[in-house]
Amino acid sequence: LKPGGANIPVTEKNKKEYIERMVKWRIERGVVQQTESLVRGFYEVVDARLVSVFDARELELVIAGTAEIDLTDWRNNTEYRGGYHDNHIVIRWFWAAVERFNNEQRLRLLQFVTGTSSIPYEGFASLRGSNGPRRFCV
After folding, report:
1. What residues does the HECT domain cover (predicted)?
2. Helix 56-64 vs helix 103-114: angle between axes, to the nearest 10 degrees?
3. 79 and 114 Cβ atoms separated by less than 8 Å
4. Domain boundaries, the chain
5. Which tens digits make up the pLDDT trace of 24-39?
6. CA–CA separation, 79 and 89 (whole Å)
7. pTM assigned to the model
8. Cα separation of 100 and 102, whole Å?
């Protein structure tokens, strides 16, 4: 992971550096062959020209399919800030609009706001942000 690293014991003092270097190695070099094999296999099944019209998020929806959104779960696990609350008129308008959306539109809204259309297996209570557990927030 670094020059002479095999001779450096991992201690509390250097543990963070070791973990960071190990994760970087695993992500950048440790799975190169597996990733290349996966991509080659994917393109054997799916013509690259057909896939090229999608961005990464759209391709995720095409491959993973769409999950049915439980609107009650979504609403019950939403956090409000800036003076908003569940009974605020603007929030009532928001949920009324979302209720009129079809499932694909709801997934697109979720993707726009959170960066992913994936709903955790445990539901919206387990939604995660880039830095850990994070409730949907208005």
Report:
1. 1-138
2. 140
3. no
4. 5-53, 63-133
5. 888 777 677 888 898 8
6. 16
7. 0.52
8. 7
